[in-house]
Amino acid sequence: MKFEGIYPPIVTPFTKDGQIDRSTFATIIEFLLDAKVHGIIVGGTTGEYFTQTPQERIDLATFTKQVIGSRCPLIVSTGATRTEDAVHYAKAARELGADAIMITSPPYALPTQSENARHALAIDKAADLPIMLYNYPARAGVAMGHEYFREVSRSENVIAIKEASGDMSAIHNLASNFPNIELSCGWDDQAIEFFAWGAKSWVCAGANFLPHEHVALYEACVIQRDFDKGRAIMKALLPMLAIFDAGKLIQSVKYGCKLAGVEAGTVRAPLGPLTSEEEKHLQRVYMTLKGAFAHIMSRASNE
């Protein structure tokens, strides 16, 4: 498998009483597939995996595969603090027919580079599926570094990484020293830089409600090699990405889905909803973004 294109870490819609809303979830999947995203990731941070029971996570991944079928790749996140739990999710991913798994650093545990690599290789052994690593030290507490990459590279299944440290030197290290691990953008406002350094995919929460804009940016930079167009699209996206960085990513993405005409429900505790002022601000940014994007695409089609 090659990771190329836009991979939304899909949101999990909940009913008012806090149950997973499968019907709405299927609608969101169809919305993303209609926009021609290149794959779907289930069980990620944007999907609020940390609020779900182990069985809910497995059941949701299984349902996702049933809805998607063979229409696009399905990547199942195995994120967990305990290696045994991550292995459990990896085995379930293999059994349900996932195309790949995502491996994170175990949050809160603060493993050494070598310990973290053993954690990843244990998950790999359980699934024997293509792997996208996920380096997000802001949440995990530790960064995947040179020693970690050297050790996990022993497995041919480790083929990509969602690099979300925000540190450009991490991109340089991967591109220069680990070309066997495909770069995937995980720090949204650096997408242009990732594509310039050879990344061919983007795991982006905002694609849950702005899939066309994200696909267009990918196509401009990776397919068309038109970085002028790419920068114009990115400029339009930046105010929305700034909202994500303000600290209420999941709530903002779910409200964005509502603005796009796809209900995504509420969030589970410990998270809470946006304030009315935050909703109004997001709506203003959304409408401005949509107008700017339409202008960019219209201008491009006339050139």
- Helix-strand pattern: EHEHEHEHEHHEHEHEHHHH
Strand order of the largest sheet: 1-8-7-6-5-4-3-2
Strand content: 5-15%
CATH topology term: TIM Barrel
Helix content: 40-55%
Tell me how many strands there are: 8
Structural class: alpha/beta
Radius of gyration: 18 Å
Q: What separation lies between the terminal Cα atoms?
A: 35 Å
Query: What does the overall shape look like?
Result: globular
Largest sheet: 8 strands, parallel
CATH class: Alpha Beta
Walkthrough of the structure:
- This protein is of the alpha/beta class and 303 residues long.
- It has a single domain (5-225), classed as Aldolase class I (TIM Barrel), CATH 3.20.20.
- Helices cover 51% and strands 11% of the residues.
- It has helices at 22-34, 54-68, 83-96, 113-127, 137-140, 146-152, 168-177, 191-196, 211-223, 227-245, 249-259, 276-302; strands spanning 5-7, 40-42, 74-77, 100-104, 131-135, 158-163, 182-185, 201-203.
- The chain has an 8-stranded parallel beta sheet.
- Helix 4 (113-127) packs parallel to helix 6 (146-152).
- The radius of gyration is 18 Å and the shape is globular.
- The model has no long low-confidence stretch (mean pLDDT 97).
